[in-house]
Amino acid sequence: MMNTPGSAGVTRAAGTGTASGAHAGTPSPARRAPATPRRIVIAKVLVFIAALYPLARLIVFGVTGHLGANPIEFITRSTGLWTLVFLCITLAVTPLRRLTGRAELVRFRRMLGLFAFFYGVLHFTTYFWFDQWFDLHAIYKDIFKRPFITVGFAAFVLLIPLAATSFQAAVRKLGRRWQTLHRAIYAIAVLAILHFWWMKAGKHDLELPEIYGSIIAALLAFRIVWAIRARFTQQKVKGPVRRA
Predict the structure, then answer these.
(1) Other beta carbons within 10 Å of 185
(2) pLDDT tens for residues 75-95?
(3) Of 70, 192, 197, 219, which has fewest CB within 10 angstroms of its CB?
(4) How far apart are CA 51 and CA 62, in angstroms?
(5) Residue 198 contacts by C-beta under 8 Å, 6 or more apart in sequence?
(6) How many CA atoms are closer than 13 Å to the CA of 241, on its beta-carbon side?
């Protein structure tokens, strides 16, 4: 979810020779990791600042007394919605990369995924602290009594290992298992939609759940279609080899 093995996009140089005047101990340009372009660094800083907007908005509203008659409900729903928004944005990175051919978009995926986890933590903390006041027994009963709490809690639990293994050290250590683990983002997205849908269904207000449900469905459909096409192409290429 939050990163991809090889997402740094290192491009090897065509030649490996060194200039005649180079020192023997100096690594050749072909072996040096390319520096991150300045425009990518600037873009990351801007995205990071923009991603803090929901938190800054809540702080300003809290200080100025604009959280409404039920501040806890306002914060809970706001952080939950922004968790879903960042899940959608994170899932949109790969389709946008494939459609636009802009490979550098992958560099933003880990940060966006971590912000989804960040707002998920705020969402859960608001419920755990301000709504339930650390009453573990009440929370336990709530999880098994109300389906929308059940699926929301499951989505949050699944997010934890993805956030914990979103860094390059974990990618190298887990190897191929990393990709298998991070495919849980698809289940998390579905559970998040169910959580939102069932929570809003009680008030017969399904406009937003339908919008976000459609977005998630489209993003997952893109991956399914691409996977089918990739498998079909692979089988088509292997066909003549087996007949040879």
Answers:
(1) 19
(2) 999 999 999 999 999 999 999
(3) 70
(4) 19
(5) 147, 148, 151
(6) 5
Reported as a single tens digit per residue, the pLDDT across 88-114 is 999 999 999 999 988 889 999 999 999
Q: How far is CA 1 from CA 76, 163, 230, in A?
A: 24, 8, 20
Residue 237: C-alpha distances to residues 223, 224, 229 (Å):
21, 20, 12
Q: How much is the pTM?
A: 0.79
Letter for the amino acid at 178?
W
Own/partner pairs, 221-230, CB within 8 angstroms, 24+ separation: 222/94, 222/95, 223/94, 223/95, 223/186, 226/98
Count CB neighbours of 143 within 10 A: 15
pLDDT category, 24, cuts 50, 70, 90?
very low
DSSP state of 67: S
Confirm if 18 and 28 have CB atoms less than 8 A apart: yes
d(CA 138, CA 129): 12
> What does the chain come to in residues?
244
